[in-house]
Amino acid sequence: MAGTETFRVVADIPDKLLETYLQSKEIAVDTELQGLRMERDQVCLVQLCDRNKNVCLLQPEPHKAPPNLKTLLTHPNTIKVFHFALTDVAFLRLSLGIQVHPFRCTKVMSKLIRTYTESHGLRALVQELMGVELDKEQQTSNWFVKNPTQMQLRYAANDVLYLLPVYDTLMEMLESRGALPSGTSALELNEAAQACLPTVVDLLINGYGDRDQGWESSIFVH
Fold first, then answer.
1. Domain range annotation of the chain
2. Pseudo-torsion of CA 108, 114, 120, 125, nearest 10°?
């Protein structure tokens, strides 16, 4: 867990760090928001981390996509790993005009393979799979500030520091599950579910989310 390390925010990914990130197969990504209303709120902070624990915390200007961030989030050879990707991907598109691809969601993976529990939040995942308890005290703090506190930044960094190890462990669990009764493997089902997410994002940002404050759609319900 990020403890005594001092973090700072930048306006965009430094060029050398971008080069490092672009060599990675996967990058952990998270956002902090003003709120959860798509028509009202915006991205306040973007957190990134690679497998070498190189953390970058960006504070973009409203409605302006940092060029290096956009390059990374749209790079076809780097998978962007989120936890509950629908929210982050939708806000990055609406708030900064960045259409993220390709991306994966660890919450979807958790719901597919951790069928023994109803706890699929990042804190529960990190605690079970990594043996680390995340401090979520700053989760509902005010992120629309010019100078976030070190407590806020440590919280934000922790949300991406453990995301790739969680992703790897969930992948291993999916691989070990093997074939389901239909003959489809859990891994194949995960790939199909992940492939649906961009369409779900399109539905939500175009107003077809009619439940859970716009984050769930009944369009496929009888």
1. 9-210
2. -110
Which tops the pLDDT comparison, 138 or 207?
A: 207
For residue 214, the model assigns a pLDDT of 86
pLDDT attached to residue 136:
60
Q: Reply yes or no on whether the pLDDT at 4 is more than 80.
A: no
d(CA 164, CA 26): 8
The string of pLDDT tens digits covering residues 120-153 is 999 999 999 989 887 765 555 789 888 899 999 9
> How many Å from the N-terminal Cα to the C-terminal Cα in the chain?
45
**DSSP assignment string, 17-81:** HHHHHHT-SEEEEEEEES-S-TTT--EEEEEEE-TT--EEEE-PPTT---HHHHHHHT-TTSEEE
CATH number of this structure's domain 9-210: 3.30.420.10
Taking only the tens place, the pLDDT of each residue in 172-203 is: 999 999 889 999 999 999 999 999 999 999 99
* CB-count exposure of residue 92 (10 Å: 0-12, 13-18, 19+): buried
